[in-house]
Amino acid sequence: MTRALDPVFVRRQIELLRITYPQIADEEDQWLLALESETEFVELLREIERRRQEAEDMAAAQAARIAKIKARLERFKHREKAMRRLALTIMTAAQIKRQELPEATLSILPPRERVVVADDADVPAAYCHPPVVKPDLEKIKTALDAGERFNWASIQVGEPTLMIRD
Question: Do 13 and 63 fall within a single domain?
Answer without folding.
Answer: yes
